[in-house]
Amino acid sequence: MARGDSTSSWIRPLDPAGGLRYLQIVDLVAEAVAAGRLRPGDRLPPQRKLADQLGVDLTTVTRAYAEARRRNLIDAVTGRGSFIAVRREPGGPLMDLSMNIPPAPKGIRLADLMQRGISSVLARADSNLLMSYHVGAGSLADRMAAAAWLEPLLGAVDPQRLVVAPGAQSALSALVGSLVGREGVILAEPLAYPGLLAAARHWQVRPVAVPADAEGPLPEGLEQAARNHGARVFCLTPTIQNPTAVTLSPARRSALARVAAALDLILIEDDPYALLAPEAPPPIATLAPERTYYVSTLSKVLTPGLRTAFVVVPDGTAPDALVSALRAHVLMPAPLMTALATDWIRSGEAAQLLKGVREEAAARQEMARHLFPSARSHRSGLHLWQPLPAHWDRYRLVETARREGLGVTASDAFSVEARPPDAVRISIGGVPDRARLNAALEKLAAIMSTLHARYQDGVV
Predict the structure, then answer these.
(1) Where are the strands (E) in 131-205, listed by range?
(2) C-beta separation of 422 from 411 below 8 A
(3) What CATH number is attached to the domain comprising 230?
């Protein structure tokens, strides 16, 4: 039975610094639904009454209700009012905790950013050129924008050392192919980015794990692995590592750079999350610029759909080999997406979006840490790494979560070695809003608690 609009415990004052007011109202409704304060069939207050309660104009509430209808949160019945909609869940995992993507920041609408950005691009560029072939390292304007974007991390970068790529995955695959070649060996962290492992499989390259401790790869382990296997290339993620969330200390970065120099190793520094952690130490590329290929992507800090990444080649190295390998893979980045990324960087929109993503990720991490206090994470990272007790079966946990509508990723997806640890990665950016994320995390925590009790009782 529907409850009347006297059910108003979900209404609270809007945050003056919380972004667009109509979106705050939608968030209030979504949070109340997720928390059970509003249930399917509950009637919302008339628009004018809610406007008076919140101290906003009627247009703001009208716009909020329209957006809530678009998100299938509410239904409108002519002559009767607006009601909380009956949930129509899609098939497959209902709440995805398996994909590392940046969360949508509060108060920023990607549709508005895209519309403004594309209008700006079309006002400045020839549309025929945007729809034509563009080969090479990228236009000077695009590489200058990339240099400006990376300056907080690397300092001043010569645009001639930059290559624009259609995403970090294609850049990593091109680097593995051009630097290692078929049937070679690449050194990696014991738990590594799945995209690197996929590139290694494609090139029939054998990944070899560099021994690590809780603080990351060991310098002596790097030396031993390089000598034992005759490897010349080492790929690592030094900041908010995926999946372990480890950030290497300045001392560990310096020690690894010294070993690389002594053995004349080439480093691939895959650094997708560095801009989420402004307090992190400088990249290894600043310590060993003569031997480091530095890869940075917009997909993990802004939005995956841009498919734009930047590669800084080692100082004194021509980018031609990388450009040739990329061309063989994907021919070119999509000119319109690259132009949009450049426009956002030049206009400051990218910096604002990054700030919003960082703040939203921090809020989500704070929520997650209360439920998973033993997990390893970074305060503005996109995931948590949750080790499991030695007697647990990670496959049972993943399958139980899947049956409950949750997707999480087992350690097998990241493991370079034959026997991965019992652990799962929990990603917090893919669920659209905090309220649903909190519900998903609470459900996962409850599953883990139940499994723990069963293991202790010897039931599982």
Answers:
(1) 162-165, 185-188
(2) yes
(3) 3.40.640.10
